[in-house]
Design brief:
Largest sheet of chain A: 8 strands, mixed
Strand order of the largest sheet of chain A: 2-1-3-4-14-13-12-9
CATH class of chain B: Alpha Beta
Shape of chain B: globular
Number of strands of chain B: 15
Number of domains of chain A: 1
Number of helices of chain A: 7
Oligomer: heterodimer
Helix content of chain B: 25-40%
Shape of chain A: globular
Distance between the termini of chain B: 15 Å
Strand content of chain B: 15-25%
CATH topology of chain A: Rossmann fold
Structural class of chain B: alpha/beta
């Protein structure tokens, strides 16, 4: 067996326990990843500047996001209760899976209200992929299904009738429409998308949009309001030769918020 | 320029050159707009170059990367050992650094050894995903099974374990063939096939169907009920037509269904992508089977990944020009360092095909 790669993060050891996790009955709707050990929780709260709170409702590969966050030198605290969201100093929400299933889990656990409250307070937030879509009013994915309703608009399916293949899988450039901070270093670099549904720009949501991308239609690639950011692409998968600095920036700018007057920072 | 590209330190220069093109084309040079100005204009997206690792245990039980010749992975020596082309995690890391847009693992012992017991493959995924920040696909052995202790695992549970270990997508081979056959026979989507279950839970984009077809020449298209095409190079008896027979179990068993029929059926069943191999071209290095790839990429509206036969950078531009493939995959030429990934991308850019650099 190979030795662990040389630049693996040395922190958050408890999360690495996943590696040795026995193959117990795999449930796919569990909340959070596994139970973080007590020692981890204590350590995390004692060094909150290096802690990222992660909302993982267990419906897909969040390991890459974990790995990317750890790669940047942060520890991860998994959300177990809605209070964990409210207590977070920076929250990453890498939505994966289907819209309806995600909303169901969020509302069943009361995370939906906590999320809305957290975002309303302009606390540092990064949503990824479905984590962006869920902020909108509704989605057509197996729906209509109601979303968190923070951003005006409906998430719809790409139109494949004009020859564009759906899902949209691949690397595309962004058209950055607003200085977003987190996109500073993206420039003309391509970022990785994988999705069948997307939110479209409109007069109602225009003020939220920080970048768009063209794939048949012009769709919303990222949003920003204050400290709240969300991206349709996958920064954790947009690695590549030039993307480590970009990636650090995307995550680090979010993770190291420089907002004034915040007593959390 | 060309010569210096692969030398250390020259990438930024090259990158600068790309940036200049932005100025030339204006604001949207890197979006769809610029793509219309490219010679290649029919794939509606930037083509991907995917590096694939065929992983299996060798006779000593170590997980190694190997590569077959028409699916035969053993050396033709007295020992008849499995070809060893290095360790999977290291090689995946190298491909990532070299600019692969995705990395794909094919566990080619999957159909014999049940995957949940196949801990080394899960370990490979875990370690790889720590440092490789491009999408990872894993295939091989994703199906329902009962282990030696009598415990039943659904294919969904198997896939879940792969996803939890760091896979972004899983690919299904044999199981998808059986599912498509059943669906075409009954016209009913049971919702119980691995393909349907996994795509329902993880989304279509997480499920790739891997097709392993073999060319079957026919004199007359009416000789078979299946979709035939006129092929560019006739068969040994002068046959001008062929259909592409799907196989299962690593190409060992042919099934009564063609790649065309399979592709359309699995798209309906929820596949998000098709990985299109061709046994005749595998390991030959003579180029992709353009006839087959054109047939399939025109038949479905999900992305098609061209595979089998890449031997030179020109084969990549050829497949992107002549077909609607969204991606092209190679294993052997990257493993053996015959053609570096950078050279492929550099060639594509030179040909006016926009790729990520």
């Amino acid at each position: 067996m190979e030795a662990p790669p040389p630049f693996a993060s040395s922190s958050s050891s408890s999360l690495f326990s996943l590696r040795n996790k026995p193959l117990s009955s795999p449930t796919i709707t569990h909340f959070g990843n596994t139970k973080p050990s007590k020692s981890f929780s204590v350590r995390a709260s004692s060094s909150r500047d290096s802690v990222v709170t992660l909302l993982d409702y267990g419906a897909g590969n969040v390991r890459s996001v974990r790995n990317a966050i750890r790669f940047l030198g942060f520890e991860i605290k998994d959300v177990q209760t809605p209070q964990d969201i409210l207590n977070a100093s920076r929250l990453v929400f890498p939505g994966v899976g289907a819209f309806a299933a995600a909303m169901e889990v969020l509302s069943k656990t009361g995370m939906d209200e906590a999320l809305c409250s957290y975002i309303d307070k302009d606390r540092p937030f990064l949503g990824i992929c479905l984590g962006l879509q869920l902020l909108f009013e509704s989605s057509e994915e197996n729906g209509p299904v109601k979303g968190l309703g923070l951003i005006p608009g409906t998430v719809g399916r790409f139109d494949s009738s004009n020859g564009f293949r759906v899902p949209h899988i691949g690397w595309n450039a962004l058209q950055i429409t607003e200085d977003s901070g987190i996109l500073d270093d993206v420039g003309n670099h391509h970022v990785y998308f994988v999705h069948s549904y997307r939110a479209m720009p409109s007069d109602d949501n225009n003020e939220w949009i920080s970048s768009t991308c063209d794939y048949g239609d012009k769709f919303i690639a990222s949003i920003r309001r204050g400290n709240v950011h969300a991206v349709q692409f996958h920064p954790e998968k947009s690695g590549g030769k030039f993307y480590l600095p970009f990636q650090s920036l995307v995550l680090s700018n979010i993770l190291n918020p420089k907002h004034e007057g915040c007593n959390l920072c | 320029m060309t010569e210096t590209l692969t030398e250390k330190g020259c990438w930024p220069l090259y990158f600068g050159k790309i940036l200049e093109s932005k100025v030339k084309h204006g604001k949207e040079a890197w979006g769809r707009q610029s793509f219309k100005t490219c010679k290649k204009g029919n794939s509606h997206g930037n083509p991907l170059v995917i590096a694939c690792l065929d992983v299996r245990t060798n006779d000593k039980g170590d997980l190694v990367v190997t590569k077959g010749d028409q699916y035969d992975v053993r050396e033709h020596t007295k020992e008849n050992e499995v070809r060893n082309l290095g360790k999977p995690v290291d090689l995946a890391g190298q491909y990532y650094k070299d600019g692969a847009d995705e990395v794909s693992f094919l566990n080619i012992t999957g159909f014999r050894d049940f995957p949940l017991g196949d801990l080394p493959m899960l370990q490979v995924l875990r370690y790889t995903s720590e440092n490789v920040f491009v999408p990872l696909t894993v295939g091989g052995g994703i199906r329902d099974f009962t282990d030696s202790t009598g415990r039943y695992y659904s294919s969904l549970e198997v896939a879940s374990e792969y996803f939890r270990s760091g896979a972004d997508k899983i690919s299904i081979g044999s199981d998808a063939v059986y599912a498509a056959e059943e669906y075409l026979k009954t016209g009913v989507k049971t919702g119980k096939t691995s393909l349907e279950q996994i795509s329902r839970v993880y989304g279509n984009q997480a499920v790739v169907v891997s097709i392993d077809p073999r060319r079957v020449y026919v004199k007359d298209p009416n000789d078979v009920q299946l979709k035939t095409i006129r092929v560019s190079s006739p068969g040994s008896n002068g046959e001008e037509y062929a259909w592409y027979q799907c196989t299962v179990n690593g190409g060992r068993e042919g099934r009564p269904i063609g790649a065309y029929e399979l592709a359309k059926a699995v798209e309906e069943l929820g596949a998000g992508e098709i990985l299109l191999n061709c046994i005749d071209c595998d390991g030959q290095g003579k180029g992709f089977d353009v006839d087959l790839i054109k047939l399939i990429s025109d038949a479905v509206s999900i992305p098609v990944i061209a595979s089998s036969g890449a031997g030179a950078p020109e084969h990549f531009s050829e497949v992107f020009y002549k077909t609607n493939a969204s991606a092209a995959l190679a294993a052997g030429i990257f493993h053996r360092k015959e053609v570096p990934i950078q050279s492929v991308k550099e060639h594509l850019l030179k040909e006016g095909i926009e790729v990520r650099i």
